[in-house]
Amino acid sequence: MTGPVVVVTGGTRGIGQGLVRAFTEAGASVAFCGRSDASVQGAGAPGGALGVVADVTNRNDVRKLWDAVADRFGRVDIWVNNAGLSTSRRKLWELDPAEIDAVVDVNLRGTLQASAVVLEAMLAQGHGALWNMEGLGSNGQIVAGLTPYGATKRGLTYATKAMAKELAGTPVTVGLLSPGMVVTDLLTRDYSPEELEQARKIFNILADRVETVTPWLAAKVLAGVKNGGRVAWLTNRKAAYRFATAAFRRRDLFAGT
């Protein structure tokens, strides 16, 4: 084993699944987790990747995941906190309380609990890089119908910057990973057919497929950034360029779906 050892939480679908494949193709030794044996077994992970059943909101599960990776590969060099949920696209008072709790638990509480375990272990081993996944709301953007999700991502950005201050002067770093708008079930859920038809016009300008974004993100993560750094696929400049050239660039990200 010569490549880095990378862990991706929530690596059984969507962006997480894409990252597992991209890191593997880049020569890394990769581990991932899902919340059930069925999701881990059905992830279609590349050969050599280690799948572990773990709930990121449970510190014991996170420690179990860390230990399983260390036992298999000898260490953990990079950890990506990717696991995340979104509520239904509804007003806050229309949401089931359990749905709100689940999103806050995984996106914010789970990332904080997992980060606490991982950072302590990385400091003990003398090196490591932790990455937290941004999302809608991280930059202060407000979207009606996604209040709990946006609030957790806004809080996560603060938490990551605070972790960076706490890690200053150590051999461990923390960074923010921003995939932008990616075509997954989280992006397109809960639209009526008419609403989705309108939303697709924006998606076809700003969004990208998982297989486009994740190899670029993986390469940036493997290259590393300074403590507290941020890697973003969809920058403001790129978004402005896409809107300016939309009339000349015909994209259909949903062809065949």
Would you write up a description of this structure?
The chain is an alpha/beta fold. The mean pLDDT is 93. It has a single domain (5-183, 209-235), classed as NAD(P)-binding Rossmann-like Domain (Rossmann fold, 3-Layer(aba) Sandwich), CATH 3.40.50.720. Strand 1, helix 1 (14-25) and strand 2 form a beta-alpha-beta unit. The protein has helices at 14-25, 37-41, 59-73, 97-125, 147-167, 185-188, 193-206, 210-223, 236-244; strands at 5-8, 29-34, 50-53, 78-81, 128-133, 172-178, 230-232. The protein starts with a strand and ends in a 13-residue tail after the last helix. A seven-stranded parallel β-sheet has the order 3-2-1-4-5-6-7, sandwiched between helices. Helix 4 (97-125) runs parallel beside helix 5. 48% of the residues lie in helices and 13% in strands.
Write out key terms for the chains shown.
single chain; 257 residues; alpha/beta; Rossmann fold; 9 helices; 7 strands; 48% helix; globular; NAD(P)-bd_dom_sf; chlorophyll(ide) b reductase activity; Chl_b_Red; NADP-dependent 3-hydroxy acid dehydrogenase YdfG
